[in-house]
Amino acid sequence: MPRLRLGPSLWLDRRTQAPSFPSLHHDVRVEVAIVGGGLTGAAIAWRFAKAGIRVALIERARVGRGSTAASTALLMQEPDVDLRELARRYGKARARRVWQLSRTATRDFVRTIDQLGIECDLAERDSLYYALTPKAIEPLRIEHRLRRRAGFSGRWLSAAQLSDASGFEGAGAIRTHGNAQIDPYKACLGFTRAAVERGAQVFERTAVLAGRSRLRTGNWGLGGRESVVLRTPHGSVTADRVIVATGYATERFKPLAGRFRMLHTYVVGTRRLSRAERRRLGLGAVMLWETGRPYHYARWTPDNRLLLGGGDRTRVRGRSRARAFRDGTQRVTEYFVGLYPALAQIAFEYAWEGLFAMTPDGLPYIGAHRRYPRHLFALGYGGNGMTFGFLASRLLLDWYRGKRSADHDL
Hints:
- By secondary structure, this protein is of the alpha/beta class.
- It has a domain at 11-71 and 186-259 and 362-409: FAD/NAD(P)-binding domain, CATH 3.50.50.60.
- It has helices at 10-13, 39-50, 67-70, 83-90, 92-116, 134-149, 159-166, 184-197, 254-257, 275-281, 320-339, 385-400; strands at 28-35, 55-58, 74-75, 123-131, 155-157, 172-181, 201-203, 210-217, 224-232, 235-247, 261-270, 286-290, 297-300, 306-314, 348-358, 365-369, 372-379.
- Strands 3, 4, 5, 6, 11, 12, 13, 14 and 15 form a nine-stranded mixed sheet that branches. Strands 1, 2, 7, 8, 9, 10, 16 and 17 form an eight-stranded mixed sheet that branches.
- α2 packs parallel to α8, α4 packs across α5 (92-116) and α5 packs across α12.
- It is globular, with a radius of gyration of 22 Å.
- The N and C termini lie far apart (46 Å).
């Protein structure tokens, strides 16, 4: 099998004329500044602008071309962390609420894309959460029972039913209805446009060099209100609040940075397959993810390519990164060829890596931090970046408005 070279993701390689947003070359005053122009930042900008809040979205590079464009964009109701694992850590009530929030966010995300008319190849898909071995099947049965008792739908598939749905031999699976898949780059641009239409300002190729708090005096020098000034190469943004939606905490926020583990994930994509080739593989119009950790995952694209991912490992820098990429993509390819031997005869045209952050418990960090009173954060989504990012947009708007609830403490 030939070695795969690191290249652009499928979403960037086939993009049409991408919109361009200006760099910041003047001073701006807004109520909320959002740092990070991925899908999370775009969704936050849209939701805040829709609420009538003056917003500026700042992106260091180009909107949507970071971790968002590296995603395979499986919109999953289920968090990466099993319900039974969350219940063991935090109790059944809290675990159930986390799952409810994730499920609701997925449905709201899909509905909002439809309402805004965002063209991003949205397609609702069932997912198969599968166990390959007899050893892995009993924990999956326990997980299925817990989900049913907590009110979460999901149909149990026997080994034979899994084979019919997936085309490979395994021990069993949970089939979940109501998940979805998208083109993440198109979705990000769609939410960004929707934010601009509602008054948001967007600046790309604009790096935040430094930030400082400032007390603004009121009329006649009486009273005052604290704000944050973000300095960029050619201008500044002054805001009442800053939302950091960069996916992970930088060294600028050291007390937070230590909470996250940075991981690379690897994705390969086939050439377009004919209908006959799809039939021979036997994989229906479903999304796959496995019970093993780190897990592998797969989905179809609208033009009949198969995207395969996994091989997660701790972030690699420097000269070792190229070797890690070769090893990672090779492991992913070999894993899926083991499930689908016919893939050995099919050319792969895409290979890329993504970078994401994980917290110790697998749940995102959404909210405030005592060291940064004028900041809010949306970080560390794990493999559920799309779902948790959209959830963050709602929770942070409530937080900004002073509408605290128990959900903010989860």
